[in-house]
């Protein structure tokens, strides 16, 4: 059976925590501990940091290209593109700052846990139930609440980063619209270019329509799931998580916090709990399971169409490159302007997609912080029960000791992972804004434009082939997933 | 005009750097550093405005150059016509030839201006990038100073 990465990581973390609880002497995990690396993988949630860095670099390069290939007489458009670069630099500087603050909070919590641990070890060693109970009620409850409040602050900061990118995204869309108006003025006398643009526009509309379709499909899916009253564990076993991972980011843009299918993608806590439960619970009626599986197949087929359309759409990159090489170098006429505008639009569109992906990642990271808070809250609930209840028996004390040991290990591991990943991201943002700043400080003189265009052609070549490889890999992934789910249909399903 | 403003901005940035340097060396209170951060933000805004103004100037020059090109072409065609017409007045032909020479001089001057404006824009953008880095460094120093124990 197609085993999900989340499933594997959750199981791995559970075993690693158990192992560390049994470890003598009991101590907090260090940065290099395998548990911390597992938490890092879990936060990344399948997101690849090198891809993130590469995508950011491409957004920057394409903006720089967009600016330089926009003709000098289109000053309004050039000024607007430069304004986007200014805003992107500010957004990245703020991101770096917010992430650094998150790292500081994470490190602070780790230190706090380290300072509290000796007192806990001493109480534990004495083995007096009343002392254990008093420590848990007074110290651990206060510590847990403090961690939850600090984590909530980190989450708020991370959300504000995502909002910052949303603003850049809006600005980019506005410039794109204004550029399109200018473009339509330029091409009104040129039928061939008008048709070509119309063709690209039709394909773009097809992609957008497909995204709208998928959103509708997800809504229908949600409705069906609600009616069937199937538990989350059953849905995950039926492949909801694979489908949600493969759906384009734009499908979740307006629905991330509202839908069940989005929850399987965004909520680590939900997944972990559901997968743990799934092992112990029964199966869904075959008819209901088949119905959900058919919905999954329909969604994946749409994802396949979407990916194929996008591949064709991106082929235009090489077409533009060929035109730059062919006709436009010698005819410094309106043709170059039109091609340059087309390229600017393409670069701006690409920038929108990259910003969307960046925003998605932050949702995922903010979600992990929620998981930490929820975990801490669950422990606090145990302590609150201890506070309210009567005398605790031997089993109760054992449970409380194990829960507290677990809290120390998990919290230390999770916050170290947040700090570690945060540091990597802070470095990425720092490198990104410095790079964008350096590029924004360059101005290509008209006498250097030819040489610049040569470099643009080489760059588009590399970018095109990289994107083609990624697209092929993604289509392969969709196909494999589709085959797995189709294989469940009519059989005993994934429960067999 | 633009060049004077640019030079002023560069001199101001240099003076700000010097003042920041002094504040580090003399370990003055935090307030002057905060003022310097504000000053840098102002320079940044000034340079951004200057960059946009230059962008407009470059576009306006570009448009004027196209107009001159068109004018030159029309005038040249008029000269051809006058040469071809046997009954045309010599005065008109001479005036058109003089016009053509003037247009050519304007075109050459306009071309020089293009290069000059583009160089100014390059310089302006370089300055802006440098100010941004200085600004960020100063902000980091300010933050570190604020967090330093005992301050």
Can I get a quick summary?
The complex is a heterodimer of chains A (about 500) and B (about 150). Chain A is mostly helical. Helices cover about 85% and strands about 0% of the residues of chain A.
Describe this structure in words.
The complex is a heterodimer of chains A (496) and B (151). Chain A has one domain. Helices cover 84% and strands 0% of the residues of chain A. Chain A has helices spanning 5-22, 34-44, 49-69, 75-126, 129-187, 191-228, 232-237, 240-246, 249-252, 260-266, 268-278, 286-326, 334-388, 394-440, 449-488. Chain B has a single domain, classed as Helix Hairpins. In chain B, 91% of the residues lie in helices and 0% in strands. Chain B has helices at 2-25, 30-84, 90-147. The chains are: A mainly alpha (496), B mainly alpha (151). The interface between A and B is medium-sized, with 21 and 25 residues.
Query: Given the helix and strand composition of chain A, which structural class is it?
Result: mainly alpha
Following the backbone from N to C, one meets helices and strands of chain A in this order, namely: HHHHHHHHHHHHHHH
CATH topology of chain B: Helix Hairpins
Computed structural class of chain B: mainly alpha
Assembly state of the chains shown: heterodimer
- Tell me the Rg of chain A in angstroms: 27 Å
Total number of beta strands of chain A? 0
